């Protein structure tokens, strides 16, 4: 099995790369940060520097890579566009789209994938939390394209994983004390009474890769957030 994980040098992407590598897959990860790439180089088959926002570079990458079995899209621009809508610059929301949705679309146009595509979205797509309008817009758009993509790209399978609050570097914009308070509040508000770990989401991605009768679906991995 050969898999490409774009945005695979930290957090959910890296956890997925490690899970698939442990399963015996040949895993290629991409990222922009040379230090992160160097840190994971001996943990995957290939770690390649790539700006997912550059269509020319992405097209060249997939031309070099050739056909492979599974694609996982785990780009994250960080906490861009977070905050009350009236206080958020529209340029920040645009940057959130350009840092996640549009790189996903570029990859989908150029990837020579034969079996499955898994997109990472977020629970903000179907939540009603103040201060998350920008996040909801981006992740809602990602989730909405999954069913038509599954129909358009069949028999390739297309699914998404929708994580809740996961302890990843995404939260580094908050000071440590505030971050831990946020995590505690989030854990208290879901049935499982804890926040997620990157491996929780990676296990869901691994399931979808192997679930050959599942396509066009959004799989929540949120500790019960969507039902609480």
Summed up:
This protein has 228 residues and is of the alpha/beta class. Helices cover 43% and strands 18% of the residues. The chain has one domain (2-167, 197-220): 3-Layer(aba) Sandwich (Rossmann fold).
Explain this structure.
The chain has 228 residues and is an alpha/beta fold. The chain has one domain: NAD(P)-binding Rossmann-like Domain (Rossmann fold, 3-Layer(aba) Sandwich), CATH 3.40.50.720. It has helices spanning 11-22, 34-40, 55-65, 90-99, 101-110, 133-153, 176-188, 198-210; strands spanning 2-6, 26-31, 46-49, 68-73, 113-120, 157-163, 218-221. Strands 3-2-1-4-5-6-7 form a 7-stranded parallel beta sheet, with helices on both faces. The radius of gyration is 17 Å and the shape is globular.
Secondary structure category: alpha/beta
Total strands: 7
Poorly predicted runs are none
Per the CATH scheme, the topology name is: Rossmann fold
Strand content: 15-25%
The shape is globular
Helix content: 40-55%
Please name the CATH architecture. 3-Layer(aba) Sandwich
CATH superfamily: NAD(P)-binding Rossmann-like Domain
What oligomeric state do the depicted chains represent?
single chain
Tally of DSSP helical segments = 8
Overall pLDDT metric? 94
The H/E string reads EHEHEHEHHEHEHHE
How many domains? The number is: 1
Largest sheet: 7 strands, parallel
Give the termini separation: 37 Å
Rg measurement, Å: 17 Å
CATH class: Alpha Beta
Spatial order of strands in the largest sheet: 3-2-1-4-5-6-7
